[in-house]
Amino acid sequence: MHPSATPSKSATKHPDVLVIGGGIIGLVTAWRTAGRGLSVAVADPAPGGGAAHVAAGMLAAVTELHYGEQTLLGLNLASARRYPRFTDELEEAAGQRIGYRRCGTLAVALDADDRAHLRELHALQIRSGLDSQWLTGRECRRLEPMLAPGVRGGLRVDGDHQVDPRRLAGALLVACERAGVVFHRSRAERLTVDGGRASGAELADGTRLSAGQVVLAAGSHSVRLAGVPDEVLPPVRPVKGQVLRLRLPQMPAGSAAFLSRTVRAVVHGGPLYLVPRESGELVVGATSEEMGWDTTVTAGGVYELLRDAHELVPGITELPLVETCAGLRPGSPDNAPLLGPTELPGLHLATGHFRNGVLLTPVTGDAMAEVLATGSLPEEARPFSPTRFSATAPGPERVRAPQEQPV
Ligand code: GLY
Is residue 396 predicted with pLDDT exceeding 80? Predict the structure, then answer.
């Protein structure tokens, strides 16, 4: 659909594509698909919210590399490479900035165990052909003078950047509206299936929507949609993350920033990151808790984040604490997303992005638009087909999340 086009009556009632879930993954799918000339509707009571409202927005393909996730690394890098162009296109479409900042990342070690762990990560990065430089503790502190004197060494990764996820979500919402995407501000309660094909959804406000194709993109809540046949229910689960937001001091002109890049570390065995934004916000994250659908901010969570952040950057305790929040990452059995058609004709998935939802936004939008417009998933997205978890799939045993009732 042409930008700023008003959707026709039939597109409103029976769009080509219905996206269930208006977080960043649902919105980027809707925006990119509308850009391919299809009529698109999104069902979500509060589009632009979701996990992105909590996320720090690290684009950390290299510093968040984990053993056994080399296939995911390929998709992460493909998406990171798209960010500059994606940012230009989105900012132009929405007329607002998304806070993409090419600041680089420093991952540091505070003790001998952390240092050994970081050395292993460095070796894996080098084996994977990635750009990462080992620094001594002194070199780390020269780059970031606010780091604790005890820092034992670190990895400088100039290619791991950041974006502001709240701005990203806001811009996607505007871009969707300008592209003619229709929003139904109500929760999808049930998938409808007719003649063995996904045909639409029933919403909490009683609306019944029919569509040519349906995309389930409701993050960890994707597993809660009623009416999805057992065999195609996405094996996603909520993984809680608590996050703090602090305010950085205004530094006198010409003096160094409090932190000039993202700083990460493993402290007491838990990953910690500090993401300084140009807006003056400093995001500190994140816990990782398997607590079901609970999003309570706990004293223990806040305490641990502040304790670890203080160990890493002692000056942090002087900063105003302006917000605490918790969100749910959509975890999948192999920590990678589920993208594209399911074995139920007409039903696609775009969920399970776990730690990488913000990073994977550009590549997800492109892959979903391509498969919705042409029926064919791009090469780079094929390893992430939901069918890898189907009962008949070869390879790793299928893992399923327990089916839940809608709430
Ligand atoms: N990618 C950061 C997190 O999931 O906490």
Answer: no
Nearest residue by C-alpha to atom 5 in ligand 1: 286
Residue 345 forms part of a structural domain: yes
- Sorting pLDDT into bands at 50, 70 and 90, what band is 406? very low
Atom of ligand 1 nearest to the CA of 355: 4
Evaluate whether residue 116 is within a structural domain.
Answer: yes
Q: Which domain holds residue 267?
A: 105-158+238-331
Q: How far is the CA of 356 from the centre of ligand 1 (A)?
A: 7
Q: Write the DSSP string, 325-381.
A: EEEEEEE-TTSS-EEEE-SSTTEEEEE--GGGTTTTHHHHHHHHHHHHHHS---GGG
Cβ–ligand 1 distance for 327 under 6 Å, the answer no
Does the Cβ of 329 fall within 6 Å of ligand 1?
Answer: yes
- Dihedral, 221, 223, 224, 229 alpha carbons, nearest 10: 150
The DSSP symbol for 13 reads: H
326 with 278, same domain?
Answer: yes
pLDDT band at 11 (very low <50, low <70, confident <90, very high): low
- Among residues 273, 299, 331, the one where a domain terminates is 331
Per-residue confidence band for 5, with pLDDT thresholds at 50, 70 and 90: low
Pocket residue to mutate for ligand 1, from 76, 244, 273, 308, most atoms within 8 A of Cβ: 273
Here the CATH number for the domain that contains residue 250 is 3.30.9.10
For residue 307, the CA-to-ligand 1 centroid distance in Å is 18
Last residue of a domain, one of 309, 331, 353: 331
Task: Assess whether the C-beta atom of 57 lies below 6 angstroms from ligand 1.
Answer: no
pLDDT in tens, 39-50: 999 999 999 999
**Co-location of 306 and 187 in the same domain:** no
Q: Is the CB of 43 under 6 A from ligand 1?
A: no
286 Cβ closer than 6 Å to some ligand 1 atom? yes
Residue nearest to atom 4 of ligand 1 (CA): 355
Tell me the pLDDT tens digit for each residue of 233-271.
999 999 999 999 999 988 777 777 899 999 999 888 889
Closest CA to 114 of 308, 269, 263: 269
350 and 318 within one domain: no
Is pTM, for the whole model, over 0.90?
A: yes
Does 193 share its domain with 311?
A: no
Cβ pair 179, 93 in contact under 8 A? yes
Residue 79 lies in a domain: no
**Cα-atom radius of gyration of the chain, to the nearest Å?**
21
Q: Does 245 sit in the ligand 1 pocket, CB within 6 Å?
A: no
Task: Return the SS3 of 240.
Answer: strand
Ligand 1: centre distance to CA 204 (Å)? 31
